[in-house]
Write a structure and sequence with these properties.
Layout: H1 2-7, H2 25-43, H3 64-87, H4 92-118, H5 125-130, H6 148-154, H7 162-183, H8 187-208, H9 216-220, H10 224-256, H11 262-286, H12 295-315, H13 322-351, H14 366-379, H15 382-389, H16 417-436, H17 443-462, H18 466-470, H19 472-493, H20 495-499, H21 511-532, H22 540-565, H23 568-574, H24 584-592
Helix pairs in contact: 2-3, 2-4, 3-4, 4-7, 4-8, 7-8, 8-10, 8-11, 10-11, 10-12, 11-12, 11-13, 12-13, 14-16, 14-17, 16-17, 17-19, 22-24
Length: about 625
């Protein structure tokens, strides 16, 4: 058998054909993922006319399950691409997966654009900001779609408007698409669409709010009446722009790009130009010609930015929006400088007042009215004025005159920068009024003029916020000054009348001397009354107080003298000479007619009835 076997020829050896490499389990799973993703993605491929639905959008209420499938397919496609990149970067399957990913991203781009465009009202910053505090948590990842219907059911009975529901849903969809595109490496395509659409909305909203991008040159050429209209428009717009427009836009950015640092750059590019233009307007206004009559509009601008500063800091907190914060700060600085310049100009205008005509009757000088009305309006801004003048100490050539404050320590209660500044402006006015008394030839009238004007100032202080700034001590000391002026008026204005009566009206004196006293009194009273019949005291309390004081000083003395020597016996001897022309009641009636500014003739009737007091 060995021989037989040994002699048998060996069969020819052939090389078997190469068998394809065996597919790993992981690779088969990736292939399957690509197949599933392709079926879903091509269904919504806009370039595939046979499968693309022109009417429906993927992110619509009736397609929520398909949205979930579509996003999951992208997630699976990403996993497959990562696998093939690591195992076989040149594999045809990787190219296929990349092409599918591009198709999916184009679809999501269209969906992103459509949501932004079709939900302009629901995504308007006003809508977003109005319910941001009540907004439900947005979906933070693709997997959150699994809880979509449970979420909607849970919030079914919440008392929120349909607009709020739509807004919340739109923001959630945008956020989901953004997360998906960014994770797939399509960040640039995503944010480009977002920036273009949202920036146009912000710019359009600012336009409708009346915000104009005006240069300094344009503002300087405007008449003040026109510029004031622009300022009013800006004041109406800025609060809405900050608290609604930019705040809402910031919320939307934070919601859509919550899982990415892109929210900073997006918000910055969308809002920065508009915000810089908005907050640059006050700075340009502050650089225009400064006159005291523009003060209150400048203060309005300062107050608006100052009040909104916490929101400005919070909304534009990013480094990329620092230009907005800096523009707002620059405006505050320039507005503060303008206010200080106008206060200085106002003080200069007081000092340079050149009016040479005395106020008829010793009434209120126009300068007094203007200054006190101006200062009273300033007190409405005392809070922001404190900021503006805090580092602007008052420098005067000499200490404040003690005559206006009652002593060297009288103004210690006036210690805030605003109080000191306003007290100084009033003092400058009082000093100017002191110079106006030289226009009066009658000393008594000059004192009445000072009493009237200081009383007007005190009354303005008492009835406004000035009282809280200057203090009750200031008011009391200046009221005492009014009384001093009034007493000087009575002494100087009625000295001849008082001097015509005897020092002791009850003392026995000769008849001739009695006649002389009556004659001199008649002449002095008639002259004084006639002269003062056109003098006025506008303030009712001061007017009545001075009338009462005059009556107490004149009538009791005259009445005693009249009772002793003006009786029937003397009248019989001197009736034809009309020696006793006034009964005490006549004097009271004449005095009561003074200071009303009635423009009476000022004559005293010679037919006064001694007993009846008629005239």
């Amino acid at each position: 058998m060995r021989t037989v076997f040994s002699k048998s020829p060996l069969p020819a050896r052939t090389t078997p054909p190469p068998s394809p490499p065996r597919q790993t389990f992981s690779e088969s799973l990736m292939d399957e993922d690509i197949e599933v993703a392709e079926s879903i993605i091509t269904k919504w491929d806009s370039s595939n006319s046979s499968s693309f639905r022109n009417i429906d959008y993927l992110f619509s209420q009736e397609n929520r399950h398909e949205v979930k499938q579509y996003l999951n397919s992208i997630k699976q496609l990403q996993r497959a691409m990562q696998y093939f990149v690591s195992e076989n970067p040149v594999a045809e399957k990787l190219v296929r997966a990349q092409n599918l990913m591009q198709t999916a991203m184009k679809r999501l781009q269209k969906e992103f654009y459509q949501i932004l465009k079709s939900n302009r009202d629901q995504l308007h910053p006003e809508s977003v900001s109005s319910h941001s505090s009540r907004a439900s948590p947005s979906r933070s990842s693709i997997s959150d779609f699994e809880d979509e219907f449970e979420y909607e059911s849970r919030h079914e009975n919440e008392k929120i408007s349909e607009m709020e529901r739509a807004s919340t849903a739109a923001m959630a969809d945008l956020r989901t698409i953004a997360d998906c595109m960014i994770s797939a490496g399509y960040t640039k395509e995503c944010i480009k669409i977002y920036k273009i659409i949202r920036k146009s909305i912000v710019d359009e909203a600012l336009y409708h709010l009346g915000v104009e991008r005006l240069t300094l040159s344009q503002l300087q050429k405007m008449d003040w009446e026109v510029l004031e209209i622009k300022i009013k428009s800006w004041l109406n717009a800025v609060k809405v722009a900050v608290k609604t427009l930019f705040y809402g836009e910031r919320i939307l950015c934070d919601q859509v790009f919550s899982a990415s640092s892109l929210r900073e750059s997006c918000f910055s590019e969308i809002s920065r130009d508009g915000a810089v233009a908005l907050f640059g307007f006050p700075e340009n206004v502050a650089k225009c010609k400064k006159t005291p009559d523009k003060m209150f509009r400048i203060l309005d601008l300062y107050e608006a930015i100052s009040d909104l500063w916490p929101e400005i800091q919070s909304i534009f907190i990013f480094e990329s929006t620092s230009a907005v914060r800096q523009t707002a700060v620059d405006s505050l600085v320039k507005l503060g400088e303008a206010v200080r310049a106008m206060i200085t100009e106002f003080e200069t205008a007081i000092q340079k007042d050149t009016s040479k005509s005395p106020v008829p009757g010793g009434g209120i000088h126009p300068l007094t009215r203007y200054v006190m009305n101006y200062i009273t309006f300033l007190t409405d801004y005392s809070g922001i004025l404190s900021d503006i003048v805090a580092d602007w100490p008052l420098t005067v050539p000499s200490p404040l005159p003690e005559s206006y404050f009652g002593g060297p320590d009288a103004n210690v209660s006036i210690n805030s920068p605003v109080s000191v500044r306003l007290a100084w402006l009033i003092l400058v006015t009082l000093c100017k009024l002191d110079g106006k008394v030289e226009l009066y030839k009658d000393v008594g009238l000059s004192y009445l003029f000072l009493a009237n004007n200081l009383q007007y100032i005190v009354r303005k202080v008492r009835k406004s916020n000035l009282r809280f700034l200057l203090g009750d001590d200031w008011v009391a000391k200046h009221e005492a000054k009014v009384q001093q002026y009034a007493a000087n008026y009575e002494r100087m204005g009625w000295s001849k009348v008082l001097a015509s009566l005897p020092e002791d009206p009850t003392a026995a004196i000769p008849v001739d001397l009695v006649k002389d006293h009556f004659i001199r009194f008649n002449a002095a009273f008639e002259e004084t009354y006639k002269k003062q019949s056109s003098w006025i005291i506008p303030e009712a309390k001061l007017r009545e107080r001075i009338k009462l004081s005059l009556e107490k000083r004149i009538v009791p003395v005259y009445e005693e003298f009249y009772d002793n020597y003006g009786g029937v016996g003397l009248r019989k001897q001197t009736w034809n000479e009309s020696i006793v022309r006034f009964a005490p009641e006549d004097l009271r009636n004449y005095l009561s007619d003074l200071f009303n500014g009635s423009g009476s003739s000022g004559s005293v009737s010679s037919n006064s009835s001694h007993g009846g007091g008629n005239h």
